Amino acid sequence: MQYGYFDDKNKEYVITRPDTPKSWSNYLGSKEFGSIITNNAGGYTFYKSGGMGRFIRMRFNSVPMDQPGRYVYFHDHDSGDYWSASWQPVGRPLDQFKSQCCHGTAYTRISSEYKGIASQVTYFVPLGKLYEVWKVKITNTGSRKRTLSGFTYQELVGTWNALDDLLNLQYVQYTTQMDIQDGIIDHGTNINIPAMPDNFEEKDQGRHTFQALVGAKIIGYDTDREAFLGPYRTYANPLVVEKGKCTNSRGYGDNPCGSLQFEIILSPGESKELLVLVGIGKAGDEGKRIVEEYSDLHKADENLIQLMNHWHSRIKGITADTPDPLLNSMVNMWSIYNCMMTFAWSRAASLIYTSSERDGLGYRDTVQDFLGPMHAITDEVRERLELMITGQVSTGGAMPVVRPLSHKPGSEKAPSEEEYRSDDCLWLFNAVPAYIKETGDIAFYNKVLPYADKGEDTVFGHLKRAIGFTMERSGTHGLPCGLWADWNDCLRFGHNGESVFVAMQLRLALKEYTEIAALLGNQEEEVWARSLLENVDSTIQQNAWDGEWFLRGYRYDGMKFGSKENSEG
């Protein structure tokens, strides 16, 4: 079944029918302010952290899919009919409701037409800003005058901590106070506790977000979810939208939401545009200031062009012209774009994973992620590469997760011996040489960086400690110990079991280290590494070769993984 196509000219993926088998999502924003949006406007928004800074609520793996989200509803005052600008959540029959979604470079545009009204909503986060813009255009494509009401909608959290908001209802349903100031919705959580901007991970502190509308007359609002939806209703049939009139509810605890009602009167062929602005800060401060900035609606168009130009320039560097157009689309656009988004958020924000417990940068994941965008954003890669090197502890092993918002090199607690993963720091031998080869910055090897727990060393010294950590932890056959896990977390060797995968990593590490030492003119280190490399090669050949292929490893009790002796695997 065909649901869309690559538009290489505009650098977009165009979804031509909205009933996709799964929600197809895009990322908006930056490492500071991020949003995930699907082809049906589902998703959530967060500040600094998907797990500790989420302020637009979403339920994972929900039925229907990817709800709630960022919705714009319409009510026709003549017929009483209503629908949403995206196919979902109302879900009008697809033989009557035409929809198209374009996922572009950090923006998404959803266009639809239903019973003579066309709408287009473009979602994006302006460069360097802590708010998102919903650029809405409504057109009367029919032959008679239309009188409509529009309703924005987003469901808001009781607390920015995603896990608490999901589970700790006896707390979070008493922590929100909603207000409206000069037509701007103020969403406050824990407002009687001081804000602590220097301690972001403290979940119990006062915080505010706002929702504003520019370009249309506001005639009502709702900030309480139950008032907006009505009892025993869903996002598909909100009572307020069905009746065509907001209740002017002010949420106080329970489940907050943000909805602004605006009036639209359109002659045949007439269009109107407006902006919805959602961001960090108080309605009366940041919200009011940003509304004033967008008093000229064209500012949004300028911001969008600037954003597109920025991203199009970032994905340059590698191009392909092959007989396969899909391969060209992936190499020239989507592979590098995907790598950049993975670089930005690691595994901490998506439709399938976000957590307060592991809300940081997984060591091995992040160091591997450097390789994809290395050629395109070398300065940003170097900055985070330095961060991850300071996540290595003085033993040579690594913290399993580095939390950028609270990381304090030199004073972190080292993992216990049972917490180490055997492969973590060996990934530095993929990333660091790749950075040097891309930039020619050989001096980087001599840069002094702290260990996570204590002490400091040159980058070259950090690499040597990674080798030392692995060499000091070997099993019965002389192969590296499996520790908590090697790269395959599901394969448990036991702490003293042995991993052939890590042995191969160690071999690569020693080979790279030998070449680095030669590059730096350090003959002593070159000889040291070459001697170890010969020993490792011999050990692998003697103890890992199974006759036709290499083993995967040995369990702590000597059982082989991946042997011809195994009935499986």
Summarize the structure.
The protein is of the alpha+beta class.
- The helix-and-strand class reads alpha+beta
How far from one another are the termini? Answer: 35 Å
- Strand line-up of the largest beta sheet: 1-2-8-9-10-11-18-15-14-13
Number of helices: 13
Describe it.
With 569 residues, the chain is of the alpha+beta class. The protein has 2 domains: 302 residues, Glycoside hydrolase, family 65, N-terminal domain (Beta-galactosidase, Chain A, domain 5), CATH 2.70.98.40; 202 residues, Glycosyltransferase. Helix content is 27%, strand content 25%. The strands form 6 sheets. Strands 1-2-8-9-10-11-18-15-14-13 form a 10-stranded antiparallel sheet, with helices on one face. A hairpin with a 2-residue loop joins strand 13 and strand 14. The longest helix has 21 residues. The chain is elongated, with a radius of gyration of 27 Å. The two termini are 35 Å apart.
